């Protein structure tokens, strides 16, 4: 019997599991310590009453045979699809049909699974730094070759450099002979917190159309966009339906991290080598996915009700206030940082030439603050840390103060 050898090529533990292990070990040895976590992007504000009531009502429906729901449509219930199209796309002058939208149990699931649409010899381009799921899922499939510890790079991965020099903006500038088949883009970006303008994103769309590439666009953080020149959807760009798949989530937009629901858009216009990617995903979903819970989909539908939308907007503003507090504090202390304006993440430079993990350990041991080492997102993340704005305001203020007070020691 043979197992998949590609799992053994994954370097170390999954980033957030490793962080959890370190924090657990510290707390075991220091049980009275007050550790503040601004690392994992989990929300802290409660769900709106209207969402909970929608779940309760949907749960009550399961008591009666006439309203009981068993297996639902593997691609999602029409009532939710139509609400998403009307509220999230038609408001952007983007027209979609229901069969171009696929409800799932979260954009992370889709981000890991979407690579199944492409051949094993497809050339993959991913930004550095980047959300680990993009890389790990392609490693497990066997596309990225071998990992080099010295360079922290994959032999068969086309890396899109995102550094201080280009303001952490991915640009379609590949070396001669490098031509990606699949390009992963996240904007507003996780982990850097930097967002693309429409003109910048249009450059990628134009490149993909010219070179017959497919863009996997992760728009999980679009609700945090404040500037008018930042697009909420890649389909705001001309021609994007011919080359782009878009993934979105209710996790951060509506506080559904524990509820698990998101969706992916695959336009019918997206055809590669005569094959409709929409038709391929439509075939794939019922084979591997039985659909998102009816109760959760009813909860998601409630997020589009006027009163609930107002409450959710207030939650977004709450997290934006956290981000702004960190940005202001770091500006006042002249600490190098990026993001935090159109995204819930701040990308912080480590002090005193410390590595990402050295600074992680220092903050944990001396200040009892947990933030995410940037090196966990790629080689270009070394020397940086990701902070999340999803904590409580009180924790955010306290953790920021601890960071500022010890930064220049």
Question: What would a concise description of this structure say?
Answer:
With 409 residues, the protein is α/β, with parallel strands linked by helices.
Provide a descriptive summary of the structure in words.
With 409 residues, the protein is an alpha/beta fold. Helix content is 36%, strand content 15%. β7 (182-186), α6 (198-211) and β8 form a beta-alpha-beta unit. The mean pLDDT is 96.
Q: Give me the count of strands.
A: 17
Strand order of the largest sheet: 2-10-9-8-7-3-6
| Oligomeric assembly | single chain
Distance N terminus to C terminus? 56 Å
Largest sheet: 7 strands, mixed
Element-by-element helix/strand order: HEHHEHEHEEEEHEEEEEHHHEEHEEEH
Radius of gyration: 21 Å
State the secondary-structure class: alpha/beta
Count of alpha and pi helical runs: 11
Shape: globular
Binned strand content: 5-15%
Query: What's the pLDDT, averaged over the residues?
Result: 96
> Helical residue percent?
25-40%
Q: Which blocks of ≥5 consecutive residues have pLDDT under 50?
A: none
């Amino acid at each position: 019997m043979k197992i998949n050898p590609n799992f053994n090529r994954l370097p170390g533990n999954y980033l957030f599991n490793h962080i959890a292990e370190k924090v657990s070990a510290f707390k075991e040895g220091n049980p009275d310590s007050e550790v503040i976590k601004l690392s994992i992007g989990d929300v802290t504000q409660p769900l709106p009453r209207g969402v909970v009531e929608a779940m309760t009502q949907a749960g009550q429906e399961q008591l009666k045979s006439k309203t009981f729901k068993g297996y639902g449509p593997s691609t999602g219930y029409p009532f939710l699809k139509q609400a998403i199209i009307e509220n999230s796309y038609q408001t952007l002058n983007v027209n979609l049909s229901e069969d171009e939208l696929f409800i799932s149990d979260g954009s992370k699931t889709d981000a890991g699974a979407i690579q199944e649409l492409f051949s094993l010899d497809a050339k993959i381009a991913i930004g550095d730094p980047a959300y680990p799921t993009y890389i790990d899922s392609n490693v497990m499939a066997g596309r990225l070759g071998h990992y080099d510890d010295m360079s922290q790079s994959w032999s068969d991965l086309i890396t899109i450099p995102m550094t201080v020099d280009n303001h952490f903006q991915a640009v379609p500038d590949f070396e001669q002979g490098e031509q990606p088949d699949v390009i992963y883009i996240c904007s507003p970006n996780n982990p850097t917190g930097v967002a693309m303008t429409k003109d910048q994103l249009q450059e990628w769309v134009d490149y993909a159309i010219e070179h017959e590439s497919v863009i996997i666009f992760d728009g999980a953080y679009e609700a945090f966009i404040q500037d008018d020149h930042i697009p909420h959807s890649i389909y705001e760009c001309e021609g994007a339906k011919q080359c782009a798949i878009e993934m979105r989530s209710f996790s951060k937009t509506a506080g559904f991290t524990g509820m698990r629901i998101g969706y992916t858009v695959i336009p019918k216009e997206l055809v590669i080598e005569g094959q409709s990617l929409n038709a391929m995903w439509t075939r794939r979903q019922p084979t591997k996915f039985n659909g998102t819970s009816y109760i959760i989909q009813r909860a998601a539908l409630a997020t589009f009700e006027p009163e609930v939308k107002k409450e959710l907007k207030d939650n977004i503003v709450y997290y934006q206030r956290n981000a702004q507090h960190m940005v202001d504090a770091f500006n006042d202390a002249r600490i190098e940082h990026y993001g935090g304006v159109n995204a819930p993440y701040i990308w912080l430079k480590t002090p005193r030439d410390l590595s990402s993990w050295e600074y992680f350990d220092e903050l944990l041991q001396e200040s009892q603050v947990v933030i995410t080492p940037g090196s966990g997102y790629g080689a270009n993340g070394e020397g940086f840390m990701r902070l999340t704005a999803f904590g409580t305001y009180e924790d955010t203020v306290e953790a920021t103060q601890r960071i500022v007070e010890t930064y220049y020691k």
